[in-house]
Design brief:
This protein is an alpha+beta fold. It is built from six helices and five strands. The protein is 34% helix and 19% strand. A hairpin with a 2-residue loop joins strand 4 and strand 5.
Length: 166
Protein backbone atom coordinates (compact mmCIF):
# COMPACT_ATOMS: atom_id res chain seq x y z
CA UNK A 1 0.00 0.00 0.00
CA UNK A 2 1.40 3.32 -0.95
CA UNK A 3 1.79 5.77 1.76
CA UNK A 4 0.23 9.21 1.47
CA UNK A 5 2.39 12.11 2.38
CA UNK A 6 1.28 13.75 5.52
CA UNK A 7 0.52 17.46 5.45
CA UNK A 8 1.29 19.35 8.58
CA UNK A 9 -1.17 22.03 9.65
CA UNK A 10 1.60 24.64 9.99
CA UNK A 11 2.30 24.49 6.25
CA UNK A 12 -1.27 25.66 5.42
CA UNK A 13 -0.84 28.89 7.39
CA UNK A 14 0.41 31.94 5.50
CA UNK A 15 3.88 33.16 6.18
CA UNK A 16 4.25 35.90 8.83
CA UNK A 17 4.91 38.55 6.15
CA UNK A 18 1.39 38.20 4.77
CA UNK A 19 -0.13 38.58 8.20
CA UNK A 20 1.74 41.77 8.87
CA UNK A 21 0.83 43.25 5.47
CA UNK A 22 -2.83 42.37 5.92
CA UNK A 23 -2.85 43.90 9.40
CA UNK A 24 -1.19 47.08 8.07
CA UNK A 25 -3.77 47.43 5.28
CA UNK A 26 -6.61 46.90 7.75
CA UNK A 27 -5.16 49.47 10.13
CA UNK A 28 -4.72 51.95 7.28
CA UNK A 29 -8.35 51.39 6.23
CA UNK A 30 -9.62 52.10 9.74
CA UNK A 31 -7.47 55.26 9.99
CA UNK A 32 -8.69 56.50 6.58
CA UNK A 33 -12.33 55.95 7.48
CA UNK A 34 -11.87 57.85 10.75
CA UNK A 35 -10.21 60.73 8.94
CA UNK A 36 -12.97 60.80 6.30
CA UNK A 37 -15.72 60.95 8.91
CA UNK A 38 -14.23 63.95 10.67
CA UNK A 39 -13.32 67.41 9.51
CA UNK A 40 -10.12 67.56 7.51
CA UNK A 41 -9.38 70.99 8.91
CA UNK A 42 -9.26 69.59 12.46
CA UNK A 43 -6.76 66.88 11.54
CA UNK A 44 -4.57 68.76 9.05
CA UNK A 45 -4.95 72.54 9.40
CA UNK A 46 -2.37 73.36 6.72
CA UNK A 47 -4.17 71.39 4.02
CA UNK A 48 -7.39 73.45 4.16
CA UNK A 49 -5.53 76.64 3.30
CA UNK A 50 -4.17 75.00 0.14
CA UNK A 51 -7.05 72.78 -0.95
CA UNK A 52 -10.49 74.42 -0.96
CA UNK A 53 -13.69 73.34 -2.72
CA UNK A 54 -14.84 75.33 -5.74
CA UNK A 55 -17.76 77.61 -4.94
CA UNK A 56 -19.86 78.79 -7.85
CA UNK A 57 -21.24 82.27 -8.41
CA UNK A 58 -24.99 82.39 -7.82
CA UNK A 59 -27.15 84.77 -9.87
CA UNK A 60 -30.90 84.94 -9.40
CA UNK A 61 -33.66 87.12 -10.79
CA UNK A 62 -33.68 89.78 -13.49
CA UNK A 63 -30.38 91.39 -14.42
CA UNK A 64 -30.93 95.14 -14.06
CA UNK A 65 -28.55 97.64 -15.65
CA UNK A 66 -28.45 101.43 -15.58
CA UNK A 67 -28.86 101.46 -19.37
CA UNK A 68 -32.18 99.63 -19.01
CA UNK A 69 -33.40 102.07 -16.37
CA UNK A 70 -32.35 105.03 -18.54
CA UNK A 71 -34.75 103.80 -21.27
CA UNK A 72 -37.78 103.95 -18.97
CA UNK A 73 -40.14 106.87 -19.46
CA UNK A 74 -43.39 107.80 -17.73
CA UNK A 75 -46.32 106.90 -19.97
CA UNK A 76 -44.76 103.69 -21.36
CA UNK A 77 -47.16 100.77 -21.66
CA UNK A 78 -46.68 97.55 -19.73
CA UNK A 79 -45.64 95.88 -22.97
CA UNK A 80 -42.95 98.48 -23.60
CA UNK A 81 -41.63 98.11 -20.05
CA UNK A 82 -41.53 94.33 -20.51
CA UNK A 83 -39.56 94.82 -23.74
CA UNK A 84 -36.97 96.98 -21.96
CA UNK A 85 -36.76 95.24 -18.59
CA UNK A 86 -37.95 91.70 -19.28
CA UNK A 87 -40.67 89.81 -17.46
CA UNK A 88 -40.93 90.97 -13.84
CA UNK A 89 -39.79 88.54 -11.18
CA UNK A 90 -42.74 89.34 -8.91
CA UNK A 91 -46.23 90.33 -10.06
CA UNK A 92 -48.49 90.98 -7.11
CA UNK A 93 -51.70 89.00 -7.72
CA UNK A 94 -53.68 91.52 -5.67
CA UNK A 95 -52.18 94.64 -7.27
CA UNK A 96 -51.64 94.23 -11.02
CA UNK A 97 -50.29 97.79 -11.24
CA UNK A 98 -47.08 96.97 -9.32
CA UNK A 99 -44.16 95.01 -10.80
CA UNK A 100 -41.02 94.12 -8.85
CA UNK A 101 -37.69 93.33 -10.50
CA UNK A 102 -35.13 91.76 -8.16
CA UNK A 103 -31.56 90.65 -8.93
CA UNK A 104 -29.25 89.00 -6.44
CA UNK A 105 -25.66 87.94 -6.98
CA UNK A 106 -23.35 86.06 -4.68
CA UNK A 107 -19.80 85.46 -5.85
CA UNK A 108 -18.43 82.06 -4.81
CA UNK A 109 -17.97 82.26 -1.07
CA UNK A 110 -18.46 86.04 -1.08
CA UNK A 111 -21.04 88.47 0.23
CA UNK A 112 -24.47 88.45 -1.41
CA UNK A 113 -25.58 91.64 -3.13
CA UNK A 114 -29.11 92.54 -4.19
CA UNK A 115 -30.61 95.15 -6.52
CA UNK A 116 -34.28 95.88 -6.92
CA UNK A 117 -36.60 98.21 -8.75
CA UNK A 118 -40.39 98.51 -8.45
CA UNK A 119 -42.62 99.80 -11.28
CA UNK A 120 -45.99 101.43 -10.63
CA UNK A 121 -48.65 101.65 -13.33
CA UNK A 122 -51.99 103.44 -13.69
CA UNK A 123 -54.33 102.48 -16.56
CA UNK A 124 -51.56 100.21 -17.92
CA UNK A 125 -49.14 103.15 -18.23
CA UNK A 126 -45.90 103.57 -16.25
CA UNK A 127 -46.30 106.29 -13.66
CA UNK A 128 -43.34 105.89 -11.34
CA UNK A 129 -40.53 103.54 -10.38
CA UNK A 130 -38.48 103.27 -7.21
CA UNK A 131 -35.53 101.20 -6.12
CA UNK A 132 -31.76 101.01 -6.24
CA UNK A 133 -31.48 102.73 -9.65
CA UNK A 134 -32.17 106.31 -10.59
CA UNK A 135 -32.79 107.69 -14.07
CA UNK A 136 -29.65 109.14 -15.64
CA UNK A 137 -29.09 112.73 -16.75
CA UNK A 138 -31.38 113.85 -19.56
CA UNK A 139 -33.85 110.99 -19.32
CA UNK A 140 -36.97 112.88 -18.38
CA UNK A 141 -40.21 112.33 -20.25
CA UNK A 142 -39.88 115.74 -21.98
CA UNK A 143 -36.33 115.27 -23.32
CA UNK A 144 -36.63 111.85 -24.95
CA UNK A 145 -39.26 110.58 -27.36
CA UNK A 146 -41.25 107.54 -26.33
CA UNK A 147 -40.25 104.41 -28.21
CA UNK A 148 -42.74 101.90 -29.52
CA UNK A 149 -42.16 98.18 -29.23
CA UNK A 150 -45.49 96.94 -30.51
CA UNK A 151 -45.21 95.25 -33.90
CA UNK A 152 -48.54 96.58 -35.05
CA UNK A 153 -47.48 100.19 -34.30
CA UNK A 154 -44.36 100.02 -36.51
CA UNK A 155 -46.15 99.74 -39.90
CA UNK A 156 -48.56 102.51 -38.95
CA UNK A 157 -45.67 104.83 -38.11
CA UNK A 158 -43.89 104.11 -41.40
CA UNK A 159 -47.10 104.49 -43.42
CA UNK A 160 -47.99 107.87 -41.90
CA UNK A 161 -45.11 109.87 -43.53
CA UNK A 162 -45.80 108.27 -46.94
CA UNK A 163 -49.45 109.35 -46.77
CA UNK A 164 -48.56 112.91 -45.74
CA UNK A 165 -46.10 113.36 -48.64
CA UNK A 166 -48.73 112.70 -51.32
Amino acid sequence: MPSTPSVEPSSLVRPNGWRRALAAVGLLGVAASQLACSSLGDKLPGVTSIVTPYKIDIQQGNIITQEMVDQLRPGMTKRQVTFVMGTPLVRDPFNQDRWDYVYSYQPGGGVRGQERITMYFENDLLVNFTGDFRPGEGTTADSAPATTTDAEDAPAASAAPAASNS
